Amino acid sequence: MTRQILFLMTAILVLGVSTTAFANAEEYIVNVNEDGFEVRGIEVAKGDTITFVNTHMKDYGRMQTLEPHAISDPFAVPYTEESYWIIDGSTPSRSYTMTETQTFYDRFFDVSPITVTVVEKQSNTGDGTMEAHVYGIPFDVKIMEGGKVVYHNNDPMFHHDLQHTGTVGTEKGGTFSMWAGSNGGTATANFPVENCSSCYPAGVYSWKDSVSGITGTITILADENTVNEPMRIQEDIVVVLKKSEPIIQSNSTETADSVLDKTKNFKTQIEAKI
């Protein structure tokens, strides 16, 4: 009975929070599987929504069903270890509107918690130019060829390490990494296209944070003012004509011996006349 009352009070509280309007609010999805939360930490802005989705499908032979997980409810009053919402086959997800930094636990499994950090997010600047500044992750940003990206880590608790994972649109692109310390650390990635050992022509460069598992992209746009003329190859072809040698053809069927006999007979006839 106590838990039912607690759940009812919590539901009223959550509904009260979710009805608050925030401009440009976003929703972040975090999957929950057999290993726990998909990521360890994530940054959101005040008013953003975090949604936990149960993806832990368990096979029982004749049937498959979602294994129940219990997501702690930090907004419960009073807050105890019994304050949680079960996400299972009947209710596979649970959402929270974030107003302050909170840590969530899975009460049914001994796995690492996830910290959802609420930060005062600044708007990204310079998107589509030579120099873009991004604040927090995830981000998908565009720059021109030869430009750079400056990453500002507003996470007050965790450093982040963005590692290049793949490129689409070119096979010549180099790799990159961006490590930024917590609470305002910055990292700059330069993407040269000329006079470089590692060059970054136009394409979509994907990255993944090795700390949280969050992913994003940096799209490098081709410079429309650059004209690449096709290379012209001139070849001089020299034809050498070989002087043909005379060819003697003979259709005669006579042998060398018969010719010699005729010569001797002719000589004998001449001597007889003399």
Terminal residue distance? 158 Å
> What structural category characterises the helix and strand content?
mainly beta
Computed Rg: 41 Å
Remind me, CATH topology of the largest domain?
Answer: Immunoglobulin-like
CATH H level, superfamily name of the largest domain: Cupredoxins -  blue copper proteins
Strand content: 35-45%
Q: What fraction, in percent, of the residue positions are helical?
A: 10-25%
- Number of helical runs? 2
Annotated CATH architecture of the largest domain: Sandwich
Quick description:
By secondary structure, this protein is mainly beta. It has two helices and 18 strands. The N and C termini lie far apart (158 Å).
Structure description:
The chain has 274 residues and is mainly beta. The chain folds into 2 domains: 2-119, Cupredoxins -  blue copper proteins (Immunoglobulin-like), CATH 2.60.40; 129-221, Cupredoxins -  blue copper proteins (Immunoglobulin-like, Sandwich). The protein contains 2 helices and 18 strands. It has helices at 2-18, 256-273; strands at residues 27-33, 36-37, 41-45, 49-54, 57-59, 64-66, 69-72, 84-87, 93-97, 102-104, 114-119, 129-135, 140-153, 160-168, 177-180, 185-190, 203-209, 215-221. The strands form 5 sheets. Strands 12, 13, 14, 15, 16, 17 and 18 form a 7-stranded mixed sheet that branches. A 4-stranded mixed sheet has the order 2-1-4-9.
